[in-house]
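Re: that backbone. Tokens:
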């Protein structure tokens, strides 16, 4: 059985085509495209952004047909969930793909992201706290206890909210971003979770940081998956990235140069959420929402 899972996020659309063999998913094709579904000042998704997402879905549809996929799903997340023109957007996207388009609730998104996040990791345990920091929202789920928190902030949304007022002076800019990121998670109480020392993280910002730490010039999920990043390193990297012009950031991310626009805010958010949870490190997972969707499509327990 072959399935196609599409994670249609706020900033990126990720495709996973996988084959079920002996009760396990084996990836056949993975692809990431920038969609940048940033809402306008009225909270609506612009026509051109929706068209861009539609073109990506059409491409993924063609790839799925080439691989003989028997089932597929487009999982839409924060950007479409919060869009003022949500119904019209979903209808337009449905015309671009042969797969169902399902708008996930924040909790459902977190559950699917956590479902396969630990798969393939040596020594992973189900007690870990899973944080999915995406483009438009951040979900935190403790799978065993079911404790869940959601925040309407992510790398793309934070960039749009913060960048206009960011100081030009590098030192002042660092303090400005630190303050913005800290305020984003002020209501996050670490005491509601059992163990905040064992955290696994998913999302484009964290996987990009892991690739950066590994010195990758071409993204390799196998290298990134399971890599451990310290909170201190993430904090120091945030300050370094904030000092760089956008052209330099693009060169640092040759595998995904479009992410240069949101990498600074996303890194500060990661530094802030780990600080709020008193966490010293995070284990990176390259198996987020699309893997959970694929497991669901394949009927895995």
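Recovered sequence:
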């Amino acid at each position: 059985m072959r399935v196609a899972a599409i994670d249609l996020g706020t900033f990126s659309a990720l495709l996973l085509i996988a084959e079920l063999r002996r009760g396990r998913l084996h990836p056949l094709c993975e692809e990431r495209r920038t969609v940048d579904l940033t809402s306008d000042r009225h909270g609506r998704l612009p026509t051109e952004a929706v068209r861009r997402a539609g073109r990506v879905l059409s491409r993924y549809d063609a790839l799925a047909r080439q691989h003989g996929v028997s089932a597929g799903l487009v999982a839409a997340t924060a950007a479409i969930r919060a869009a003022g023109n949500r119904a019209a957007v979903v209808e337009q996207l449905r015309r671009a793909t042969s797969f169902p388009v399902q708008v996930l609730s924040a909790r459902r998104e977190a559950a699917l992201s956590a479902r396969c996040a630990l798969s393939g990791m040596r020594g992973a345990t189900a007690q870990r706290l899973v944080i999915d920091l995406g483009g438009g929202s951040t979900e935190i789920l403790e799978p065993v206890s079911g404790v869940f928190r959601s925040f309407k902030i992510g790398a793309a949304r934070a960039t749009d909210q913060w960048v206009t007022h960011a100081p030009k002076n590098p030192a002042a800019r660092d303090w400005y971003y630190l303050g913005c990121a800290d305020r984003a998670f002020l209501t996050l109480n670490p005491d509601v979770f059992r163990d905040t020392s064992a955290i696994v993280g998913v999302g484009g910002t964290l996987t990009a940081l892991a690739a950066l730490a590994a010195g990758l010039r071409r993204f390799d999920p196998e290298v990134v998956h399971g890599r451990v990043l310290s909170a201190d390193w993430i904090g120091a990297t945030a300050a370094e990235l904030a000092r760089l012009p956008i052209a330099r950031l693009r060169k640092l991310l040759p595998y995904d140069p479009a992410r240069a626009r949101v990498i600074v805010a996303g890194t500060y958010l990661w530094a802030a959420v780990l600080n709020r949870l008193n966490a010293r490190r995070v284990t990176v997972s390259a198996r987020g929402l699309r893997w959970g969707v694929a497991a669901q499509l394949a009927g895995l327990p």
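The chain has a mean pLDDT of 95. The chain is about 40% helix and 20% strand.
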